[in-house]
Design a protein that fits this description.
By secondary structure, the protein is of the alpha/beta class. The chain has helices at residues 16-27, 39-48, 62-75, 102-126, 150-169, 202-213, 228-231, 239-246; strands at residues 7-10, 31-36, 53-56, 81-84, 132-137, 175-181, 221-223. It is globular, with a radius of gyration of 17 Å.
Length: 248
Amino acid sequence: MALINRTILITGGNSGIGRALAEALQAQGNRIIVTGRKTDSLNAVLAANPGMVGYRLDVMDPAVLTDFPARVIADHPDLDTIILNAGIMETEDYTAAPVALDVAHRTIATNVTAPIELAAALLPHLQTRPQAALFTVSSGLAFVPKAGNPVYSASKAAIHSWTQSLRHQLRDTSVRVHEIVPPLVATELTPGQSQVAAAMPLDAFTQEVVTILSQTVIPDEVLVDRVNFQRRAEADGRFAAAFATINA
């Protein structure tokens, strides 16, 4: 099940972790399809990576989200791997009066509803492939939340739970279900995040993840060493301390 010589769709592959994984996995001999909401950044990725295919996909547009799965399957019938990476992270203030809910609505639509809809539309095709894989992308904040980003943290906890159920339901099919769990990584997911000293360098994160994805047996959860601070906090009895560190 190593991700070598596969046809891989990566949503949100026009920037950050998505782009880094797209480029690294293409270098491993995979055929890569990326989506992106912003045309300029999507075109920049395609220009820099000959052979990569791209689609503009705004998951906040219901019509586009509905039409995309059939289009990508028709164009790429050998599609056998999906990485549901696209996501947003914005701050919220529940001490405000009134509390604005626009961020919550966008976050749930992008981080939860869109992956569920894409998976539902693409899984029937994946199950026709002899070997297939679906990857979700959650976050270390699914396990120890950041209080300034409550709905983002909750959305990733929801993705973690949903992934576990999906894996169980698909256990007797040809589709393996995995979850990539990033720690804080030096990208521009939030403004200035790439300059945060505590963030894991993007190239180091990508190298560690791709090494795991190149194994003959890929674990259910793709965990770089650094994310275990959050992933294992509750099991190790460190949750309160980890929460205090993240929310200092």
